[in-house]
TrEMBL record:
<dbReference type="Pfam" id="PF00479">
    <property type="entry name" value="G6PD_N"/>
</dbReference>
<comment type="function">
    <text>Catalyzes the oxidation of glucose 6-phosphate to 6-phosphogluconolactone.</text>
</comment>
<dbReference type="InterPro" id="IPR022674">
    <property type="entry name" value="G6P_DH_NAD-bd"/>
</dbReference>
<dbReference type="InterPro" id="IPR022675">
    <property type="entry name" value="G6P_DH_C"/>
</dbReference>
<feature type="binding site">
    <location>
        <position position="239"/>
    </location>
    <ligand>
        <name>substrate</name>
    </ligand>
</feature>
<dbReference type="InterPro" id="IPR001282">
    <property type="entry name" value="G6P_DH"/>
</dbReference>
<feature type="binding site">
    <location>
        <begin position="89"/>
        <end position="90"/>
    </location>
    <ligand>
        <name>NADP(+)</name>
    </ligand>
</feature>
<keyword id="KW-0560">Oxidoreductase</keyword>
<dbReference type="InterPro" id="IPR036291">
    <property type="entry name" value="NAD(P)-bd_dom_sf"/>
</dbReference>
<comment type="similarity">
    <text>Belongs to the glucose-6-phosphate dehydrogenase family.</text>
</comment>
<feature type="binding site">
    <location>
        <position position="46"/>
    </location>
    <ligand>
        <name>NADP(+)</name>
    </ligand>
</feature>
<feature type="domain" description="Glucose-6-phosphate dehydrogenase C-terminal">
    <location>
        <begin position="193"/>
        <end position="491"/>
    </location>
</feature>
<feature type="binding site">
    <location>
        <position position="220"/>
    </location>
    <ligand>
        <name>substrate</name>
    </ligand>
</feature>
<feature type="binding site">
    <location>
        <position position="182"/>
    </location>
    <ligand>
        <name>substrate</name>
    </ligand>
</feature>
<dbReference type="GO" id="GO:0004345">
    <property type="term" value="F:glucose-6-phosphate dehydrogenase activity"/>
</dbReference>
<keyword id="KW-0313">Glucose metabolism</keyword>
<dbReference type="GO" id="GO:0009051">
    <property type="term" value="P:pentose-phosphate shunt, oxidative branch"/>
</dbReference>
Length: 495
C-alpha cells in the first residue's frame, strides 16, 4: 500500500487514550514501516506545553504502554521530531485557524497535499464543537483527504446518537467518518470472519438446525476505579453491550457478505441488528438482568464496592453487570437464543463466544460409557487466551468403550511466532488506508441503540433496590445464573 503524506491531529493529545493507545499504536506502526515518509502528529490539549515537553511525555507513555517495550533511542530519535503540540481551546475558531496554518506549513515543506486525520479522543460533549470547528475552518477541503475519527461513546441513547449523526452528516460524507469500536480491531475478532467465511465446513452447520444457543461473555476483573465520572452516567449496557458485544453478535450471526468491502460487510451486520427482536416493557423483565458489585477480595487485595469507588454516588443505581437474552428473527436463527453478559470486578477477565450445538439425534452408547458426554461446543476465545476450540467426544484409551470430551485447539501462541498487533494499530492504519470495514456506520450505531433503548428505559424507571447484588471476585449476580438456567443452560467459562 502506498500511503500519501498524512497529518494526524489528536484532540485530547494530553489524555489517557492518547497516552495508552494512540501514540503507542502510531509508534509501532512507525517501527513496522507502515507510516509514510511524510507524516506528522499534532497533539492538541488545553494544557500549555512546548513540543519538547509533549514529546517527553509521550516517550514516557510509550515506555510504559507500548507492546514493543521501551522505545529504542535510535527509533525514537527518528519518530520524535514528527510530533508537534498545539495548546488550544477547541471552543474558539482561532484553534482551527492555527491548526490549518500548521498543516499548510507541513504541506509546503513536503511539497504535496496531505491526508488529514482528525482524531477526537475527547469527552463526547466536545464532539459537536470540534466536528463543526474543523469543517467550518476548511469549507473547501477535498473530502477524499479529510477523515474524522470519533471515539466512543457515540451517543448516550438513540436520540443523541441520531443528533450526532445528523450533525456529522451536515459537514462530512459518510466515507469521511470513522466511528471507533475498538473490539473490531482485535485480531481474534477479525478472525471470526476468516473462520466463518474462508472455511467450507462451518457454513452448513451455522444455523438453527444445528446450533442450540450462543453465548457471548466479556468478563472483566478490573473495577470502575477512577472512571466513575463517566461510568455512573453510562453503565454496563451502554458501555459494553450496545457496542462491543452486539458487534460480536453481528459477526457470529451475519449472512456471508458477497465480498470483503466495507459497505458489503456493514450491510450484512446491519441486517442482523434489524432482525433482532425488539423488547417490550414486559419482555425486558424476562430477558434482561443487571448487577452492581460490592466490596470483596481479588487476588489477596481488598477492593471497594462500586458505590465506594472514588467520586461514586453512594446510592448509585448504575449497573456494572448486565446479561441479556436476545433473538435474531430471521430464517437462519429463528428460536436460537443469544445470551450476552458482561461485568466488572468478576472472577476473571475473559472474552469468549461459545456456540453450543444440538445433541446427536440418537445416542448409541450405553449411559455409563458416556459419563463425560457433552454437546459439541465451539469456543472462540478473544482474550486473554487467543484460541478457537472445538469440543468433541472421543474414546478414552483403554480396553473398554468409555467416552469423554476433548478439545481440538487452534491457539495463536502455539501456531504463530509473530505478535498480534494491538487493535488501535489496525484501526489507525485503516483510517490511513481509507478502509472503513472495521468501523461503525451511522445506521449500525442507531440500530444498536434502538435495540437496547427499552432495556435502558425500563431500568431507569425502576432503580434497583438490591444493589450491590454481587461481590467482587464472583461471576456476577444470581439473577444472571437464573436467566440462563431457566432454559437449561449455564454460563460457560474456560477451564
Ligand atoms: C471500553 C469500556 O470500551 O472497553 C471499558 O469503556 C472496558 O469499560 C473496555 O473496560 C474493555 O476493553 P478491552 O479491550 O480491555 O477488552
Amino acid at each position: 500500500h502506498t500511503i500519501p503524506p498524512t497529518v494526524f491531529v489528536i484532540f485530547g493529545g494530553t489524555g489517557d487514550l492518547n497516552a495508552r493507545k494512540l501514540s503507542p499504536a502510531l509508534y509501532n506502526l512507525f517501527l513496522d514501516g507502515w507510516l509514510p515518509e511524510q507524516f506528522a502528529i499534532i497533539g492538541t490539549g488545553r494544557t500549555k506545553l512546548t513540543d519538547e515537553e509533549f514529546r517527553k511525555n509521550l516517550l514516557a507513555d510509550l515506555n510504559q504502554f507500548s507492546r514493543s517495550g521501551k522505545a529504542k533511542k535510535e527509533a525514537w530519535d527518528k519518530f520524535g521530531p514528527h510530533i508537534q503540540y498545539q495548546a488550544s481551546d477547541v471552543k474558539v475558531p482561532a484553534a482551527y485557524e492555527e491548526l490549518s496554518q500548521r498543516i499548510a506549513a507541513l504541506e509546503k515543506e513536503w511539497g504535496a497535499p496531505a491526508n488529514i486525520i482528525y482524531y477526537l479522543a475527547v469527552a463526547p460533549e466536545f464532539f459537536p464543537v470540534i466536528a463543526t470547528g474543523i469543517a467550518e475552518s476548511h469549507p473547501d477541503t477535498d473530502p477524499n483527504r479529510v477523515r474524522i475519527v470519533i471515539e466512543k461513546p457515540f451517543g448516550h441513547d438513540l436520540e443523541s446518537a441520531r443528533a450526532l449523526n445528523q450533525l456529522l452528516a451536515k459537514h462530512y460524507e459518510e466515507k469521511q467518518i470513522y466511528r471507533i469500536d475498538h473490539y473490531l480491531g482485535k485480531e481474534t475478532v477479525q478472525n471470526i470472519m476468516a473462520f466463518r467465511f474462508a472455511n467450507a465446513i462451518m457454513e452448513p452447520l451455522w444455523n438453527r438446525n444445528n446450533i442450540e444457543h450462543v453465548q457471548i461473555s466479556v468478563t472483566e476483573q478490573l473495577g470502575v476505579g477512577e472512571r466513575t465520572g463517566y461510568y455512573d452516567g453510562s453503565g454496563a449496557l451502554r458501555d459494553m453491550i450496545q457496542n462491543h458485544l452486539l458487534q460480536l453478535l453481528c459477526l457470529v450471526a451475519m449472512e456471508p457478505p458477497v465480498n470483503f468491502t466495507a459497505d458489503e460487510v456493514r450491510n450484512r451486520k446491519v441486517d442482523v441488528l434489524r432482525a433482532m427482536r425488539r423488547f417490550t416493557p414486559e419482555t425486558v423483565r424476562e430477558a434482561a438482568v443487571r448487577g452492581q458489585y460490592g466490596a470483596g477480595w481479588i487476588e489477596g487485595q481488598q477492593v471497594p464496592g462500586y458505590r465506594e469507588e472514588p467520586g461514586a454516588n453512594p446510592t448509585s443505581s448504575t449497573e456494572t453487570f448486565a446479561a441479556v437474552k436476545f433473538f435474531v428473527d430471521n430464517w437462519r436463527w429463528q428460536g436460537v437464543p443469544f445470551y450476552l453478559r458482561t461485568g466488572k470486578r468478576l472472577h476473571r477477565s475473559a472474552s469468549i463466544i461459545t456456540i453450543q450445538f444440538k445433541d446427536v439425534p440418537h445416542v448409541i452408547f450405553p449411559a455409563e460409557t458416556a459419563e463425560g458426554w457433552r454437546k459439541n461446543r465451539l469456543i472462540i476465545s478473544i482474550q486473554p487466551e487467543m484460541s478457537i476450540r472445538l469440543q468433541v467426544q472421543a474414546k478414552r484409551p483403554g480396553l473398554d468403550m468409555m467416552l469423554n470430551t476433548v478439545d481440538m485447539v487452534f491457539d495463536y501462541d502455539g501456531t504463530y511466532t509473530t505478535e498480534a498487533p494491538e487493535a488501535y494499530e489496525t484501526l489507525l492504519l485503516d483510517t490511513m488506508l481509507g478502509d472503513q470495514t472495521l468501523f461503525m456506520r451511522g445506521d449500525q450505531v442507531e440500530e444498536a441503540w434502538d435495540l437496547v433503548m427499552p432495556i435502558l428505559n425500563s431500568w431507569q424507571s425502576r432503580p434497583s433496590m438490591s444493589f450491590p447484588n454481587y461481590s467482587a471476585d464472583s461471576w456476577g449476580p444470581e439473577v444472571a445464573e437464573a436467566l440462563i438456567a431457566r432454559d437449561g443452560y449455564h454460563w460457560f467459562t474456560l477451564p
